């Protein structure tokens, strides 16, 4: 199989994700191959066999008639799938160990912060008040992981190893040692009813868009030691209805929320989420993976493919992940 050019279509990359740095990484890892950073570089569209993309502008990829694969440089592929002219070639998502480990770190950290009442302790510190509260054990807090892909499975295992009763829900049936697994729409209600802390790691699809809203929150457990259910969304911003989150925090349907992703990013400075005392915000960096690791992952996939081996982590376009 002849070596084809790699086209880079990267929008909005800054700092270590800057487009020029991506070109340098791929030039080092795929020597003797043309690497074209578009639109700055000239390239023969017919010679482009691969594209590595991050939020590419719709319509640009259809120019490459001999494209063999598209590699998305982030975990979420919803932005790419919105392009109605997307070529009918394999779309590969990132699923490397570095990204998975970073997401699990984030999930474990925030579950523990809610479990160990860190917001209350920080408030006491700010007021110089020594007022310890009784602390319940991990086995008293039921964690539910909504989405059991690579990221969800790893996070669920880590939480189970810390002693939490962990359940997981996914569209199709999964099996994880020590984790009670629910599947399909018919079991979503039972999964939510036994969950004190809901960890959301779902992809964004037509089915999941906006599902983190009052009807779902009302199904979460209310008899746990936290004093109400907690939501941690490190999946996609389009999953959540932010007005409902705020309203449910105000009326007690939710006790607290940790949000890493938002409907609009960056989160506008006038959003009431910034100042709500029960909301913890992070700037979409839960799994801000190492670009060098991602570049190595993509380069290895290209070389394996050209050696006759199948691509890994290919997106099922019908499901959206």
Describe the structure.
The chain is of the alpha/beta class. Helix 1 crosses helix 9 (291-306) and helix 3 (97-115) packs across helix 5. The model has no long low-confidence stretch (mean pLDDT 96). The protein has 9 helices and 12 strands. Strand 6 (143-146), helix 5 and strand 7 form a beta-alpha-beta unit. The chain folds into 2 domains: 5-96 and 289-306, Rossmann fold; 100-281, Rossmann fold (3-Layer(aba) Sandwich), CATH 3.40.50.
Structural classification: alpha/beta
* CATH C-level category of the largest domain: Alpha Beta
* Helix residue percentage: 25-40%
Q: Give the low-confidence spans.
A: none
Strand content: 15-25%
Task: Count helical runs.
Answer: 9
Q: Describe the strand arrangement of the main beta sheet, using strand numbers.
A: 8-7-6-9-10-11-12
Arithmetic mean pLDDT:
96
* Pattern of helices and strands: EHEEEHEHHEHEEHEHEHEEH
Q: Can you identify the CATH superfamily of the largest domain?
A: NAD(P)-binding Rossmann-like Domain
Rg result: 21 Å
Distance between the termini: 28 Å
CATH topology of the largest domain: Rossmann fold
What CATH architecture label of the largest domain applies? 3-Layer(aba) Sandwich
Structural domains: how many: 2
Q: What kind of sheet is the major sheet?
A: 7 strands, parallel
**Shape designation:** elongated
């Amino acid at each position: 199989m002849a070596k084809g050019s790699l086209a880079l279509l990267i929008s909005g990359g800054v700092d270590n994700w800057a487009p020029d740095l991506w070109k340098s990484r791929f030039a080092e890892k795929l020597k003797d191959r043309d690497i074209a950073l578009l639109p700055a570089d000239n390239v023969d569209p017919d010679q482009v066999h691969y594209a590595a993309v991050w939020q590419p502008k719709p319509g640009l990829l259809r120019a490459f008639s001999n494209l063999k694969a598209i590699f998305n440089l982030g975990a979420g592929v919803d932005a790419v799938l919105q392009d109605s002219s997307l070529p009918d070639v394999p779309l590969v998502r990132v699923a490397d160990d570095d990204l998975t480990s970073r997401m699990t770190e984030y999930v474990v950290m925030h579950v523990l912060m809610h479990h160990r009442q860190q917001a209350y302790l920080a408030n006491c510190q700010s007021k110089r008040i020594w007022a310890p509260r009784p602390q319940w054990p991990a086995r008293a807090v039921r964690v539910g992981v909504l989405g059991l892909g690579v990221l969800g499975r790893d996070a669920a295992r880590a939480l189970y190893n810390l002693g939490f009763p962990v359940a997981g829900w996914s569209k199709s049936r999964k099996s994880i040692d020590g984790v009670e697994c629910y599947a399909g729409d018919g079991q979503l209600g039972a999964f939510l009813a036994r969950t004190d802390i809901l960890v959301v790691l779902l992809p964004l699809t037509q089915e999941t868009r906006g599902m983190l809203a009052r009807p779902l929150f009302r199904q979460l457990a209310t008899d746990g030691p936290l004093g109400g259910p907690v939501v941690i969304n490190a999946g996609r911003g389009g999953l959540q209805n932010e007005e409902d989150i705020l309203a449910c925090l105000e009326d007690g349907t939710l006790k607290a929320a940790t949000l890493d992703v938002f409907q609009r990013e960056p989160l506008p400075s006038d959003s009431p989420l910034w100042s709500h005392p029960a909301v913890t915000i992070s700037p979409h960096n839960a799994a801000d993976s190492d670009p060098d690791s991602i570049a190595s992952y993509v380069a290895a996939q290209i070389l394996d493919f050209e050696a006759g081996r199948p691509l890994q982590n290919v997106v099922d376009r019908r499901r959206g992940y």
